[in-house]
DNA sequence: GCCAACGTTGGC
DNA sequence: GCCAACGTTGGC
């Protein structure tokens, strides 16, 4: 089992949209490192859902329900990009804000801080555990 | 709205 | 292959 974090701008596609829809095609990623992370996702992996920009915080947990396949939004050939599909698992009781994450010494090396512009990233098991704990979920 | 970080593009 | 210009992301 692997752990990941994906970012989304809540004004564009937030947790509320995700849960209302029940399932999301995670497409549109156009960064090689993020794409490689999408490709490494396996069925049942746990995915933290992060709201960027307006209220930066981890807001919920999702799981991988379809592994990487060619991104259907790409029209050029060859298609270098991939999509996965995610389903919501549960909302966090308390969103874990970026400020909290930055204030936590044990999360100093989390990819969210080290590579602030990456939109799909791996999370270590210990980081994942701590984030869940901070969420009171 | 501003700015830092950083990825991409294109000239040479 | 180097680097300047430029665009995008995302925090504040």
**Total helical elements:** 6
Find the CATH topology: ph1033 like fold
Strand tally is 6
User: Which CATH C-level class is it?
Assistant: Alpha Beta
Structural notes for this entry:
- Strands 2-5-4-3-1-6 form a 6-stranded mixed sheet.
- It has 6 helices and 6 strands, in the order βααβαβββααβα.
- The two termini are 19 Å apart.
- Helices cover 29% and strands 36% of the residues.
- The radius of gyration is 14 Å and the shape is globular.
- The protein is α+β, with helices and mostly antiparallel strands and 137 residues long.
- It has helices at residues 10-13, 15-21, 32-40, 98-103, 111-114, 125-134; strands at residues 3-8, 24-26, 46-51, 57-70, 82-97, 120-123.
- It has a single domain (3-134), classed as ph1033 like domains (ph1033 like fold).
- It binds a DNA duplex (12 and 12 nucleotides) through residues 7, 9, 31-32, 52-53, 56, 98, 115-117, 119.
- Residues 2-134 form the EVE domain.
- This is Ubiquinol-cytochrome C reductase.
- It comes from Spirosoma montaniterrae.
Q: Keyphrases for this structure?
A:
DNA-binding, alpha+beta, 6 helices, single chain
């Amino acid at each position: 089992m692997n752990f990941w974090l994906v970012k989304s701008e809540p004004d564009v596609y937030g947790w509320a949209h995700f849960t209302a829809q029940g399932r999301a095609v995670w497409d549109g990623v156009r960064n090689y490192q993020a794409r490689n992370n999408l490709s490494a996702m396996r069925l049942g992996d746990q995915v933290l859902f992060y709201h960027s920009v307006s209220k930066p915080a981890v807001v919920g947990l999702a799981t991988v329900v379809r592994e990487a396949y060619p991104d259907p939004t790409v029209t050029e050939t060859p298609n270098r990009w991939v999509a996965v599909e995610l389903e919501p698992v549960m909302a966090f009781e308390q969103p874990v804000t970026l400020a909290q994450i930055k204030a936590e010494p044990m999360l100093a090396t989390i990819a969210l801080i080290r590579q602030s512009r990456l939109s799909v990233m791996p999370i270590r098991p210990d980081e994942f555990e701590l984030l869940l704990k901070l969420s009171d979920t």
